[in-house]
């Protein structure tokens, strides 16, 4: 087998400008401070407005800048710390109502894909509870919690008349009666689809961190939670316990205990 010659790929001009801007922001501006307008910045760095906009868009995507209509472009605050460990959230990824708010609950037969993920027969009834997570009044995550009907079969029915949110809370109350045997988590980078983006108040395609958690009870899978965190406001770190925790970007990295 021969060896291939690697060809150096030139760095895009906007990406180089993004790096230069980042250094200037870190050294010259404080959190919440408005940076100069596009005309002044393009003159200062000697670049076209189109290149500057690309660099600014990239920094906004990374959560370093935020645009406010009628005000301008501001330096964004550091990513917020949001604990995601079971110790903090309880079962099944619950947490206090002020952190998680139930949006609705859908009841439908399991599709082939969902049935495989839950290890249940295709067509089994599955409850899908959707929630959003708030931190200091800001929506930082959305979660879809899938619960097969077989996991709740041994529990007394808790009927809820009213909205889908009420139905979702009823499912969560039933889940609280189960004993958790174990759980596993996986994290991957993704993008927000239309429904998730609407709940996160971000455009579709926004980078997100997807935390998938499987909960076991009675020797079988009892629930599958898929939580989508805004990558521009959250940072995930791992401790020796394997639990997941969200910590601020600035400062020393903390581990889950």
TL;DR?
This protein is α+β, with helices and mostly antiparallel strands and 257 residues long. It contains 8 helices and 10 strands. Helices cover 28% and strands 30% of the residues.
What does this structure look like?
The longest helix is centred in the first third of the chain and has 16 residues, at 13-28. With 257 residues, this protein is α+β, with helices and mostly antiparallel strands. The strands form 3 sheets. Strands 3-4-5-8-7-6 form a 6-stranded antiparallel β-sheet. Strands 1-2 form a two-stranded antiparallel sheet. The protein is elongated, with a radius of gyration of 22 Å. The chain is 28% helix and 30% strand. Mean pLDDT is 80; it is low at 239-257. α1 crosses α3. It has helices spanning 13-28, 38-45, 49-61, 86-89, 112-118, 149-152, 164-175, 194-200, and strands spanning 65-68, 72-75, 100-109, 125-135, 138-148, 182-191, 207-217, 220-230, 236-238, 244-246. It folds into 2 domains: 13-75, Winged helix-like DNA-binding domain superfamily/Winged helix DNA-binding domain (Arc Repressor Mutant, subunit A, Orthogonal Bundle), CATH 1.10.10.10; 86-246, Chorismate lyase, CATH 3.40.1410. The chain is built from 8 helices and 10 strands.
């Amino acid at each position: 087998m021969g060896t291939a010659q690697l060809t150096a790929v030139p760095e895009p001009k906007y990406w180089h400008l993004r790096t230069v801007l980042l250094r200037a922001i870190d050294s010259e501006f404080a959190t919440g401070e408005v940076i100069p307008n596009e005309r002044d910045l393009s003159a200062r760095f000697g670049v076209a407005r189109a290149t500057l906009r690309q660099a600014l868009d990239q920094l906004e995507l990374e959560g370093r800048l935020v645009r406010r209509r009628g005000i301008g472009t501001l330096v964004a605050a550091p990513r917020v710390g949001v604990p995601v460990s079971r110790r903090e959230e309880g079962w099944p990824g619950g947490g206090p109502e002020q952190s998680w708010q139930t949006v609705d609950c859908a009841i439908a037969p399991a599709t082939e894909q969902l049935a495989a993920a839950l290890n249940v027969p295709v067509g089994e009834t599955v409850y899908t509870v959707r929630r959003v997570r708030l931190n200091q009044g800001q929506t930082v995550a959305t979660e879809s919690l899938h619960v097969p009907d077989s996991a709740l079969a041994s529990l007394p029915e808790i009927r809820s008349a009213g909205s889908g949110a009420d139905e979702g809370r009823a499912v969560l109350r039933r889940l609280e009666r189960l004993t958790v045997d174990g759980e596993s988590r996986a994290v991957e980078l993704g993008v927000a689809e239309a429904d998730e983006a609407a709940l996160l108040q971000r455009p579709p395609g926004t980078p997100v961190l997807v935390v998938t958690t499987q909960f076991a009870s009675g020797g079988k899978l009892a629930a599958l939670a898929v939580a989508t965190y805004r990558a521009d406001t959250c940072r995930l770190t791992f401790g020796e316990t394997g639990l997941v925790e969200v910590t601020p970007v600035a400062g020393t990295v903390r581990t889950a205990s």
